[in-house]
């Protein structure tokens, strides 16, 4: 049986990563009215594009008002509202530049929050709870298993390394940078794939052999795009364990270039140092907001990961969906299409909250094609083969809220200091 996995935020919940509502609260908590006003005034004084393309204070504060007035629980909806301003008719180039600049700054803040959660939760919660994921192999095929994650964190990689499960991004090439031009001897090693070579039959993926083919559909905290997006770079997976992986991740976070002793500031486009000690640009890959992918399902340049997802769904017998709230239309469209095109495909939806299948899948709820499991990821990992609930595990995981609150407070302390 060809098994595959689709992972959402709920998969990483028991490792301490935030759900959308928690991340939104932490993000909005940074902006009191006074702080937002100071923030807007500072941004309004900058010329991020050129003196010939000035941004304007009115547009910046129009975007900030959206932030202050937002009462929802999903930061991506908020970012989508900001992107909608940029796309509205009768906007000047200065308006559009201003909205885009504000979006890029908010993007950087959210990336920073998630990076803090990654490093803090790894120490506070992953090491406590990884034992409850020790039977993750139960969810995998005898041969290769395609795992598509919508998360930006590194916990799938951590599990694979700690439990000796082969894992690959499909990368066949290697690339090395210095951490900065003042630490040239301190190297950071990446693997990479050429974007235009990504395919279901790509020789970098496992084929007819045991292992995980890992695809980060929405990018990752440690995934970077190089040479105008032509190269998708990942931190190397040739580590002995998760401790080494996270140590490497922290090094990547510190990549920089210094001019006259001062670190050159970065945003989504990161200023780093190439192998010759010269300034270079590499781009963060995290996708967020309302324009992650286009709305139509035809193949397009830049959407190679979605094509991989399409091809996997045509070939799979079973897709286990863990912790996904069905909020991404580009994913939902492909699930619906696959259920029509692949009559053997069955879905298992694992969610701790009991609810019916999403409306777009209800037409396929026959002959066991749509099945549910009302539990979290670690519970299902054990139950899927033993058909018994692990009572010790369930009791232990109920105590996680203390750890989650500790992580959140540490993140907020760093953000507000």
Q: Could you describe the 3D structure shown?
A:
It is built from twelve helices and 15 strands. With 417 residues, the protein is an alpha/beta fold. Among the domains are: 22-112, no CATH class; 134-284, no CATH class. The strands form three sheets. The protein has a seven-stranded parallel sheet with strand order 3-6-2-1-13-14-15, sandwiched between helices. A six-stranded antiparallel sheet has the order 4-5-8-7-12-11.
Short description:
The protein is of the alpha/beta class and 417 residues long. The chain contains 12 helices and 15 strands.
Radius of gyration: 22 Å
Name the poorly predicted regions: none
Which secondary-structure class do the elements indicate? Answer: alpha/beta
| Beta-strand content | 15-25%
- Give the beta-strand count: 15
Q: What is the N-to-C order of secondary-structure elements (H for helix, E for strand)? A: EHHHHHEHEEEEEEHEEEEHEHEEHHH
Number of helical stretches of at least 4 residues = 12
* Mean pLDDT value: 95
Helix content: 25-40%
Biggest sheet strand line-up: 3-6-2-1-13-14-15
Distance between the termini: 52 Å
Shape: globular
